[in-house]
Design goal:
This protein has 279 residues and is mainly α. It has 3 domains: 102 residues, no CATH class; 126 residues, no CATH class; 40 residues, no CATH class. The chain contains 10 helices and 8 strands. It has a two-stranded antiparallel sheet. The protein has a two-stranded antiparallel ribbon with strand order 2-7. Strands 3-4 form a two-stranded antiparallel ribbon. Helix 2 packs parallel to helix 5. The C terminus is likely disordered. Keywords: Membrane, Transmembrane, Transmembrane helix.
């Protein structure tokens, strides 16, 4: 218990030091977004929305992820990447969930999942790249480094879908958004009880009977419970991951030509110290 308390205290002190002594531009982004989250949390609490209050607290916890990763792996996030991570978290939890941007802006969810694929590929890429760059015994090919970044990104994307499913399954949150479809292909509905999909096309109306005499009518088709949303999210995550991994592959061959990519790749702390000394 004492070790855990000491670890938490040490992490908190490093977190405070980082955001009070650092000259990184991301500190300004962090401070502004943190204040906005606190204001939203107070507003949610006043209106008795405890779910929204919890999301705000969870957002503040997520804001510590860059510092935790920097502390754990002895790396430094570029200001651009760190700022994007903060904005991404705010856009997802506060604007998306509490502000209902997921419902108001059709492409909001797609944009976030694509960004997630790009960012996570960059983080996965950098961790392997740092180990490879500093190792005298093992030299990894650019393709392998890029592929690992891709795998890390897709793993995070899948875990995000697990998170959404858990929210729907255990907290009735509908994070995997429903969609109206006009066609159903189902083995379960096969009247002959065979293992062949039974096709129902041109669905234009569904009636749901619940309670004692209550009926809910869905016009326009059948309600898909989220599988289309899940697969769409994974697909756009794939696009983001492939985009970064491809750029990362060429970056390892020509760092000057693809220098802009360094804004999205964390570096080892000693590399930052060397660069500062040279400047």
């Amino acid at each position: 218990m004492k070790k855990i308390k000491k670890m938490i205290t040490g992490f908190r002190e490093r977190l405070i030091h980082k955001y009070t002594k650092s000259t990184k531009r991301s500190v300004f982004v962090y401070a502004v977004l943190r204040v906005m989250v606190i204001i939203v949390a107070i507003r949610q609490l006043i209106h008795g929305n405890f779910e929204g209050t919890f999301l705000c607290a969870f957002t503040l916890l997520l804001f510590t992820i860059p510092t935790y990763l920097e502390d754990s792996f002895q790396i430094t996030f570029p200001s651009a990447l760190e700022s994007i991570i903060y904005i991404f978290i705010f856009a997802s939890e506060i604007l998306g969930s509490i502000g209902n941007f997921y419902g108001l802006i059709p492409f909001w969810d797609t944009m976030l999942h694509t960004t997630n694929g790009f960012i996570c590929a960059g983080i996965g890429f950098s961790l392997v790249y740092i180990l490879n760059d500093k190792s005298a015994k093992v030299t990894l090919s650019p393709f392998y480094v890029a592929f690992v970044g891709f795998c890390v990104s897709m793993t995070v994307g899948v875990c995000w879908e697990f998170y959404e499913y858990a929210g729907d399954r255990y907290f009735a949150m509908d994070m995997q958004k429903d969609r109206i479809v006009e066609q159903v292909n189902s083995v379960y509905l096969n009247p002959e009880n065979t293992n062949e999909a039974f096709h129902i096309d041109g669905i234009h109306r569904v009636e749901i009977f619940y309670g004692e005499d209550d009926v809910y009518v869905i016009d326009g088709g059948y309600l898909d419970p989220g599988i289309n949303d899940t697969m769409k999210d994974l697909f756009v995550n794939l696009i983001g991951a492939v985009t970064f991994s491809t750029l990362g592959y060429f970056y390892l061959y020509s760092k000057q030509k693809y220098a802009f990519l360094s804004n999205f790749i964390p570096v080892k702390n000693e590399d930052v110290e060397i660069k500062t000394t040279i400047e």
